[in-house]
């Protein structure tokens, strides 16, 4: 079980990080378009389609990764002050009540949506040479599956927290600046407290 | 009042203040009054449930029960879709396109595309013929086809393919973004549809050159969509009422457009807009480009089948009109252009 | 069914506010309510609706600039520019009363504008400027207020992600919003600075002068410090903003060029590495996913809300109050202000604003003007207790003797200045509307 959890975490983190690099491609693609349009006076026909596809790919494929990092914003002004066991219980119930039904819909209906587009060999309607659009639509069910797997992992995390009263550690990863600084500051004051023998 | 009323959600694809949204509202009003409460369409604002370009998918999957738009919007699914709205300029007008749909085999071809090839779960009523559309709004007058090369220009449907053949860099922008984009010089030219819409969307604020008479969209009509299961489930007489309402709204729209478009063109002029005809070399280049677009896309057998049917109709019907009708310019000039 | 569709719509909204407090990720709470209520009333077509709304967020061309601006922000943030920036501005401002506080405000405003990341600015300045002010004998509350208020300016001063979200939600031009928010942003920063200078002049003990040895040596030294830190960042910000406002590029184009510029700038400072690039890329992906999934959730929520006719009920209710346009403005801004206590600005914009926006037309209120008022108002959501990110971040890095109450007390005058700015903006709408009308007619 533990190995499955880690495998899913690692898989989603890997996929999220891999597709995170689309931001670099997006930056370069748009800069190239800017160069073509303003310097060469010959705008590309693909920049518009390429830019929303890269942007859409970026955030969809990072959805499960963000969940694995507990990065989806919560209205946590009450939640924050709850004991871990209560947090875990509420989360556990809501994963089944709120999360899985929607994600299953995303997989099932997303597949139908993609499959119809695939059968039609649907192209983008945004330009006369619009690129194929069905691979992009295919990201919806794929994302759904990744989110489903990550949801299972989060459910198990909740059950562990329910038993132990402690949230299990997440994979180590890069953090927001404020979080790193705050953790540093907290560690330092702990260290000082230890130094003074009060802990 | 034995029968319960069926309430249908009906979403337009037009900006709220656009006269097109008003036309959608007119159709809804006809249905609701004529059906005496047995069916009730609720008109939703554009984007309320789904964005404009997703209305066909949404009607097909039953998310909304109906929608009001143009077939050119779905041309990413199949370029032939655009033929049932903004077809090539064979010299016919939108009213003659409606004639083809009714009596030239157009509706059967449309149904074959929508229900047969694309497997969409929709019933489509083609309605509301529009007059020819302006080439659009520019920073400087377009005097030759060369001026179009490399120009960043907004249009839709097969007109996009046509302009690509002319060397235009076609951009598709959402309706509300056309004017700000032009103001900032992001696009050098743009067209939407007609004087009333163009006035409301704010084109005269950003450009003073309005090139009219163009072959890129010499004709177009609206498309009213209903979810097929929902529509087939209605009593036969209610279905007939909806079809009748589409025809009634269609005629009413033509008459209303005569009034509003002509008035609003004067308003545009009074705001310092220079209204200029598209020069003949550009028109000729457009016709030549239509040849290429038709040749390219006719590789698809269904596209070719529709084009052949349209050309046969236009050849006969327009030929008849030209042979049969007197020249309206001569009479007009006799009465209104006296020295 | 016991309830009519519109009643269900209102119930859905109320339940959302209740469930919001359970602390579950908001995107999925919205998704669940939208899909759930949609299923009860419309059957399984709601699953297709959910998928299509998801797709509409994926293909939304306004939101493209969000990851790009976030990327630019993370690169600037990780390039260790802040130290130099603060020191050079501090040198240049040495002669002004309350110079350290003024330098802090200017640094915050600039850095927050370039990065748009409030938390990073407050914590970094909390480590850098806050202790410097305390050492110089500044009043703790004043110093705390300056860091917190300055750190939030980035959400208003363009290029701001907040305005892109507003533009995408309200369907108004992001470009015009930028032009409209520019002067009000400067006004707010100017009022903060004026307040600090006045306090320093009236109560020199709260913001004492720097000892001479800490002031600049020569004009050359100051000029060099500014040329190597202040100007490169200023050029980057002005280029991005200028390109957008003067119509040379779309927001996403300017953002992409800005991101590339930030990478070059970081390389020029020799403070960029493969690791920092990776960090920026990964954080961009997570932050983009956070914002865009919120849009996905709210897209299905608001579509079902519209299908149920909930919007109509809200509209009829508000219209039945017979409010004047002023009354409507006051009511909506008060609601946004109160929502800002427990919530953060993303949720307010993505979830609650769509309910007010369709009403603007009835009262003849310009959505661009309204957007700038909202932008000012949302400054308070970071600052006002009980949930105030900026004071919490500062508390986390501040010396132990600084209490959260001191920080909140220090923030209060700045909250008052925000409200004063809103009043000024209401009385003189030209502050927001002049620039867009001068630029775009
Ligand atoms: Na058009
Ligand atoms: Na708050």
From TrEMBL, chain A:
* The protein, known as: TRAP transporter small permease protein
Per the UniProt entry, the signal peptide is none
Q: Where in the cell is it found?
A: Cell inner membrane
Organism expressing this protein natively: Xanthobacter tagetidis
Mostly located where?
membrane
Entry keyword Oxidoreductase: no
Q: Which UniProt keywords apply?
A: Cell inner membrane, Cell membrane, Membrane, Transmembrane, Transmembrane helix, Transport
Q: Which residues form the Tripartite ATP-independent periplasmic transporters DctQ component domain?
A: 26-158
* Biological role: Part of the tripartite ATP-independent periplasmic (TRAP) transport system.
Please provide an example of a Pfam family that matches this protein in its UniProt record: DctQ
Q: List the InterPro entries.
A: DctQ, TRAP_DctQ
Q: Which family does it belong to?
A: Belongs to the TRAP transporter small permease family.
What is the recorded membrane topology of this protein? Multi-pass membrane protein
Q: Partners and quaternary state?
A: The complex comprises the extracytoplasmic solute receptor protein and the two transmembrane proteins.
What Gene Ontology molecular function terms does this protein carry? transmembrane transporter activity
From TrEMBL, chain C:
Q: Does the keyword Secreted apply?
A: no
Per the UniProt entry, the signal peptide is: none
Q: Where are the transmembrane segments?
A: 7-37, 57-76, 88-106, 112-130, 142-166, 178-203, 224-248, 254-272, 284-308, 328-356, 368-394, 406-428
User: Domain TRAP C4-dicarboxylate transport system permease DctM subunit, which positions?
Assistant: 13-431
Q: Per UniProt, what is one Pfam family of this protein? A: DctM
Q: How does it sit in the membrane?
A: Multi-pass membrane protein
Subcellular location per the Swiss-Prot or TrEMBL entry: Cell inner membrane
Q: Which domain of life is it from?
A: Bacteria
Q: Name one GO cellular component term.
A: plasma membrane
Keywords (A to Z) from UniProt: Cell inner membrane, Cell membrane, Membrane, Transmembrane, Transmembrane helix, Transport
Q: Which GO terms describe its molecular function?
A: transmembrane transporter activity
Which family does the similarity line name? Belongs to the TRAP transporter large permease family.
Q: How does it assemble?
A: The complex comprises the extracytoplasmic solute receptor protein and the two transmembrane proteins.
Briefly state the protein's biological role: Part of the tripartite ATP-independent periplasmic (TRAP) transport system.
Its protein name is: TRAP transporter large permease protein
Species of origin reads Xanthobacter tagetidis
